[in-house]
Automatic annotation (TrEMBL):
It comes from Allonocardiopsis opalescens. Gene3D superfamilies: Aspartate/ornithine carbamoyltransferase. GO terms for cellular component: cytosol. InterPro entries: Asp/Orn_carbamoyltranf_P-bd, Asp/Orn_carbamoylTrfase, Asp/Orn_carbamoylTrfase_sf, Asp_carbamoyltransf, Asp_carbamoyltransf_Asp/Orn-bd. The keyword Transferase applies. Pathway: Pyrimidine metabolism; UMP biosynthesis via de novo pathway; (S)-dihydroorotate from bicarbonate: step 2/3. L-aspartate binds at K82, R165, R219. GO terms for biological process: 'de novo' pyrimidine nucleobase biosynthetic process; 'de novo' UMP biosynthetic process; amino acid metabolic process. This is Aspartate carbamoyltransferase. GO terms for molecular function: amino acid binding; aspartate carbamoyltransferase activity. NCBIfam families: asp_carb_tr, PRK00856.1. The gene is pyrB. Residues 3-144 form the Aspartate/ornithine carbamoyltransferase carbamoyl-P binding domain. Heterododecamer (2C3:3R2) of six catalytic PyrB chains organized as two trimers (C3), and six regulatory PyrI chains organized as three dimers (R2). Residues 152-298 form the Aspartate/ornithine carbamoyltransferase Asp/Orn-binding domain.
């Protein structure tokens, strides 16, 4: 059985297979009947220990379009909130015969542990500040659709890299797919050992923008911050926020991305978020197609396997 836990587990051919499959499956969304019988009889469990309406609904829509049965496991009010361990929860899912488990957890590494305890495929929907591989896949899918390629694209990822699993997964995946990634952030919002990542690091947003085909603004994750990482919201926005004046420094065909949810007026101005250059709404729609592709390839059983290690 195979899993999708880290974007770094995907080879170039794995990643391209997912993106190409997502392109085919995207056509289902244009049909009057948005369903395929592919995963009929399979059970997908959404196991979300952190709130995330957008990602959970996206996975649910993806599974249902492939005719899988979907069980949403609400942690609040469940045995977990009464102290049941992740292992006990895993054993319950195993007894129910879950074919796939989509897990979001506030502890980095939780999906790896879950994969040791269940026979079904485990898909990481975000673990702590570690990874969020399907977000990176949908971002790459969106870039390829808008710009026609990923090889040699100049992608600038801006903001709270320290707390961002989206940044980690994007750096790994985009490097695999041949893009050139630059992280731009205040030094306090860069992780330890970032110099070992396959990307460039810069501190000045204004000098990076003219050299960017894609600029991805990260949400400032105030809920994960227990310390003062920058002087004030106004100061952060002045130095690292993307407004209309800064957007004008981008090359003519460059696009603006954001994984959502946005702090409008902080890391991204409303006029930028709502501009024709913004792919933010497309990213949400593309997320369903990409997650359909991941579920199809992991649970369909008839295609070449994709990364994550065999068990």
């Amino acid at each position: 059985m195979l899993h999708l836990i880290s974007a770094a587990d995907l080879s170039h051919s794995d990643a391209v297979l997912i993106l190409d499959t997502a392109e085919e499956l995207a056509q289902v969304g244009d049909r009057s009947v948005k369903k395929l019988p592919t995963l009929r009889g399979r059970t997908v469990v959404n196991l979300f220990f952190e709130d995330s309406t957008r990602t959970r609904i996206s996975f649910e829509a993806a599974a249902k379009r492939l005719s899988a049965d979907v069980l949403n496991f609400a942690v609040k009010g469940s045995s977990v909130s009464k102290g049941e361990s992740l292992k006990d929860t895993a054993l319950t899912l195993e007894a129910m015969g879950a074919d796939g488990v989509v897990i979001r957890h506030n502890a980095s590494g939780a999906p790896y542990r879950l994969a040791e305890w269940v026979r079904g495929s485990v898909i990481n929907a975000g673990d702590g500040t570690h990874e969020h591989p399907t977000q990176a896949l949908l971002d790459a899918f969106t870039m390829r659709r808008r710009l026609g390629r990923l090889a040699d694209l100049r992608v600038t990822i801006v903001g709270d890299v320290l707390h961002s699993r989206v940044a980690r997964s994007n750096v790994a995946l985009l490097h695999t797919l041949g893009a050139q990634v630059t992280l731009v952030a205040p030094p306090t919002l860069l992780p330890v050992a970032v110099e070992t990542w396959p990307c460039e690091v810069a501190y000045d947003l204004d000098s990076a923008l003219p050299k960017s085909d894609v600029v991805m603004m990260l949400r400032v994750q105030r809920e994960r911050m227990q310390a003062a990482y920058f002087p004030s919201a106004r100061e952060y926005s002045r130095r690292y926020g993307l407004d209309a004046e800064r957007m004008a420094r981008l090359p003519d065909d460059a696009i603006v991305m954001h994984p959502g949810p946005m702090n409008r007026g902080m890391e991204i101005a409303a006029e930028v978020a709502d501009s024709p250059r913004s792919t933010i709404v497309e990213q949400v729609a593309n997320g369903v197609s990409v997650r359909m592709a991941v579920l199809y390839l992991l649970l369909g059983g008839s295609e070449p396997a994709l990364g994550g290690g065999e068990r």
